[in-house]
């Protein structure tokens, strides 16, 4: 059997499929006819091996309580070793319905109401939401945008915030969403050393780890035994294989004490067995989806390069923040002279685009827009031309 879903230029109709990206614009306060490039899923059908395993399983007709065995972990282990040089152990794994769910469990396990939780804005907006929804306080070590159009860590401020705010929990995003930074091993080690010094637990959201285009992804827990002992590493096949609605994430916690604390919180909210379809899809994707993944990886790299070239040539005053990883491109409109509010109005009502406004990623994101380039080249071109002719 060969992979069938390799033609990524073929556009499938997603409207009318209960699709959050395409079917809920009006409910989210947008015009019905916007072109959506916001939420981080792909406009590509997943590997055909996943299609086949799901069709085979649904034919059985019984969907009772289910679990997976050793083959599931074996698929994860091979993938993590092959792509990230990380040797995982079965007892480290806790399966959850999502990474944000795991963040919430960590916040509940290791902090109390009113405590500060450290993040690095501009960052994936559910980080702030899950902190505030659990009655904790957002503390940000804002990333610093350099002249090289890359974000950098202010390590002095990072340690200062930990000390002043009595931080016990840090939510790391690497590869970083929305900036596209892939932090180096040296940067991660410096962060880790500060966290070790001050007894800070690190929850490392590495969900975009399979889309790195420059440099190399380093698993935070793989820096060494000391770092492993303070690590909660959050992964999922949802970004890699476009399986977000399957609601399966794989959370690796080598430290037994930390793992027991998270397990207690997961049990407390009533999560036990997860969806058999999600579990089988994840296993099959990691087992047989390599060709599809490599094809998508190359296509996304081309889309990112195309976006950068188009912006540089046709969108004066707009800068592309250098993307080292993720399929999310971060555009800086601040030198156009358009206010963030007017920019948002033009994008939505003139260009008829639904992007992610930079302001939702924190104050440091004001004047930026995030574009999801995991779509067909023709759709991406249409989006950029709407910005060129309707926004600027």
Count all strands and give the number: 15
Number of folding domains? 2
**Low-confidence runs:** none
State the fourth-level CATH superfamily of the largest domain: Type I PLP-dependent aspartate aminotransferase-like (Major domain)
CATH A-level architecture of the largest domain: 3-Layer(aba) Sandwich
Please report the number of helical segments: 14
Order of helices and strands: HEHHEHEHEEEHEHEHEHEHHHEEHEEEH
Shape: globular
Main sheet characteristics = 5 strands, mixed
Radius of gyration using CA atoms only: 21 Å
Beta-sheet strand percentage?
Answer: 5-15%
Helical content stands at 40-55%
The termini sit apart by 49 Å
Neighbour order of strands in the largest sheet: 2-10-9-8-7
**Could you state the oligomeric state of the chains shown?**
single chain
Mean pLDDT: 98
Looking at the structure, the CATH topology of the largest domain is: Aspartate Aminotransferase, domain 2
CATH class of the largest domain: Alpha Beta
């Amino acid at each position: 059997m060969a992979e069938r879903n390799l033609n990524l230029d073929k556009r499938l109709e997603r409207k009318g499929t209960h699709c959050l990206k395409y079917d809920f614009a009006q409910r989210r306060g947008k015009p019905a006819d916007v072109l959506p490039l916001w939420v981080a899923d792909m406009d590509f059908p997943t590997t055909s091996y996943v299609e086949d395993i799901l069709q085979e399983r649904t034919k059985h007709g019984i969907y009772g309580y289910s679990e997976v065995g050793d083959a599931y972990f074996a698929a994860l282990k091979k993938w993590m070793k092959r792509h990230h040089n990380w040797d995982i152990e079965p007892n480290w794994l806790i399966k959850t319905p999502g990474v944000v769910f795991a963040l919430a469990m960590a916040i509940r396990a290791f902090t109390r109401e009113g405590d500060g939780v450290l993040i690095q804005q501009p960052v994936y907006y559910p980080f702030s939401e899950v902190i505030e929804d659990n009655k904790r306080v957002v503390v940000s070590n804002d990333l610093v945008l350099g002249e090289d159009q890359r974000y950098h860590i202010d390590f002095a401020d990072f340690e200062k915030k930990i000390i002043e705010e009595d931080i016990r929990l840090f939510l790391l995003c690497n590869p970083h969403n929305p900036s596209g930074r892939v932090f180096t091993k040296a940067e991660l080690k410096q962060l880790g050393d500060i966290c070790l010094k001050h007894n800070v637990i690190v929850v490392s959201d590495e969900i975009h780890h399979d889309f790195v285009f420059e440099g190399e992804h380093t698993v935070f827990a793989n820096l060494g035994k000391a770092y492993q002992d303070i690590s909660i590493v959050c992964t999922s096949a949802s970004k890699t294989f476009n399986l977000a609605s399957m609601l399966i994430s794989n959370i690796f916690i080598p430290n037994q004490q930390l793992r027991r604390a998270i397990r207690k919180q997961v049990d407390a909210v009533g999560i036990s067995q997860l969806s058999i379809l999600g579990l089988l899809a994840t296993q099959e994707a990691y087992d047989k989806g390599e060709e599809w993944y490599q094809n998508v990886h190359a296509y996304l790299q081309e889309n990112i390069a195309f976006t950068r070239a188009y912006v540089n040539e046709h969108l004066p005053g707009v800068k592309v923040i250098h993307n080292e990883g993720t399929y999310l491109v971060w555009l800086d409109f601040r030198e156009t002279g358009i206010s963030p509010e007017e920019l948002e109005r033009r994008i939505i009502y003139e260009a008829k685009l639904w992007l992610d406004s930079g302001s939702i990623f924190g104050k440091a994101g004001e004047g930026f827009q995030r574009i999801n380039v995991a779509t067909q080249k023709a759709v991406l071109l249409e989006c950029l031309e709407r910005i060129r002719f309707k926004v600027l």
